[in-house]
Automatic annotation (TrEMBL):
<keyword id="KW-0444">Lipid biosynthesis</keyword>
<keyword id="KW-0547">Nucleotide-binding</keyword>
<dbReference type="InterPro" id="IPR003758">
    <property type="entry name" value="LpxK"/>
</dbReference>
<keyword id="KW-0808">Transferase</keyword>
<dbReference type="GO" id="GO:0009244">
    <property type="term" value="P:lipopolysaccharide core region biosynthetic process"/>
</dbReference>
<keyword id="KW-0418">Kinase</keyword>
<dbReference type="GO" id="GO:0005524">
    <property type="term" value="F:ATP binding"/>
</dbReference>
<dbReference type="Pfam" id="PF02606">
    <property type="entry name" value="LpxK"/>
</dbReference>
<keyword id="KW-0441">Lipid A biosynthesis</keyword>
<dbReference type="GO" id="GO:0005886">
    <property type="term" value="C:plasma membrane"/>
</dbReference>
<keyword id="KW-0067">ATP-binding</keyword>
<dbReference type="GO" id="GO:0009245">
    <property type="term" value="P:lipid A biosynthetic process"/>
</dbReference>
<protein>
    <recommendedName>
        <fullName>Tetraacyldisaccharide 4'-kinase</fullName>
        <ecNumber>2.7.1.130</ecNumber>
    </recommendedName>
</protein>
<comment type="similarity">
    <text>Belongs to the LpxK family.</text>
</comment>
<dbReference type="GO" id="GO:0009029">
    <property type="term" value="F:lipid-A 4'-kinase activity"/>
</dbReference>
<keyword id="KW-0443">Lipid metabolism</keyword>
<feature type="binding site">
    <location>
        <begin position="52"/>
        <end position="59"/>
    </location>
    <ligand>
        <name>ATP</name>
    </ligand>
</feature>
Length: 328
């Protein structure tokens, strides 16, 4: 499902009509968060979540956090709900046995960086990870989940989209009001280029207040691929496919078309056959994101190029300081 366009425009008639329902949604979220104290793990818990619906860059942020913690000598484990997977857990993701259909695409992708546990019960997955030797837990999403106490909640936001029209579902993209969500965060991480960051600061600076603010961008990983010499047909089932297409253009690739898909959209045989036929007819190479690539059937992976991206934080001092306070 794609977000309604009015979510990212100034409040108007549609969002105004739906605002009372948004108020009820926000109330329900607040009540759930107050319902009971979460399980207090015996190791630090870091949460990378958001207060909006849709992709904000949480998975690249989790990759960066895992590499950062490993560089500090720790053994982080990831806790994920396993969205899109048929298995419910709690279980540890095994890339040799599990597919994206089993455990979800994001957990399968993150399993290349650290052990990943999936399951709807965050306390249960936390206990399993602790028993397996984790000395720090990284929650991929779960900012509004009260089941596990969070030592370092980080709110991740797409700088270009910001917090949309500032209203709660269904009137806008928010899971809870901005002041309420940011009050629980210890850090804010906005992801986007310089123009997007400036726009975000101008629109939301007052709401951010004195909350420590990390600014970052997604950069293509240097792989030696001569993108500037390629005709490509890119497809992407992520929160904002246009960002992926723009990255390819920035690398000089010749895009003969673009195929935006819904976030986590299954790559059915019919869809893949259509993509292959279109690429062949246009003399182009299929290319996709890392997250989409793990959903490809094994026989198809050799036919599709992947463009990996990594998070680059401008000034990580506030994050380093927060990790230091947790003994990490």
């Amino acid at each position: 499902m794609r977000a309604p366009g009015f979510w990212y425009r100034p409040p108007g008639l549609a969002s105004g009509v739906l605002a009372p329902l948004g108020g009820l949604y926000g109330y329900a979220t607040a009540r759930r968060l107050r319902a009971r104290p979460g399980y207090r793990a015996g190791v630090p818990v870091i949460c990378l979540g958001n207060i909006t619906i849709g992709g904000t860059g949480k998975t690249p942020s989790a990759m960066d956090m895992l590499m950062r913690l490993a560089a500090r000598g720790h053994s982080p484990h990831v806790l994920s709900r396993g969205h899109g997977g048929a298995l419910k857990g709690p279980l540890r993701v095994d890339p040799a046995q599990h597919s994206a259909a089993d455990v979800g695409d994001e957990p399968l992708l993150l399993s290349a960086f650290a052990p990943v546990w999936i399951g709807p019960d965050r306390a249960a997955t936390a206990r399993a990870a602790e028993a397996a030797g984790a000395d720090v837990l990284v929650m991929d999403d779960g900012f509004q989940n009260p089941g596990l106490a969070q030592d370092l909640p980080i709110c991740v936001v797409d700088a270009a989209r910001g917090f949309g029209n500032g209203r709660v579902i269904p009137a806008g993209p928010l899971r809870e009001p901005v002041p309420t969500g940011l009050a629980r965060a210890r850090l804010l991480l906005s992801i986007g280029d310089d123009a997007a960051q400036a726009q975000f600061a101008q629109r939301w600076g007052q709401a951010i207040g004195g909350l420590p603010h990390l600014r970052a961008r997604l950069e293509p990983l240097a792989t030696g691929m001569p993108w500037g010499q390629l005709r490509v047909l890119p497809f992407a089932g992520i929160g904002d496919p246009e960002k992926f297409f723009a990255t390819l253009r920035g690398l000089g690739a010749d895009l003969v078309g673009t195929v935006p898909l819904d976030d986590h959209q299954p790559l059915s045989p019919a869809l893949l056959q259509r993509l292959s036929a279109e690429a062949q007819a246009k003399g182009a190479q299929l290319v996709t994101t890392e997250k989409d690539a793990v959903r490809l059937p094994p026989a198809m992976r050799a036919q599709v190029l992947t463009l990996p991206v990594r998070l680059r934080i401008e000034d990580a001092a506030p994050l380093d300081a927060a990790l230091d306070t947790l003994g990490l």
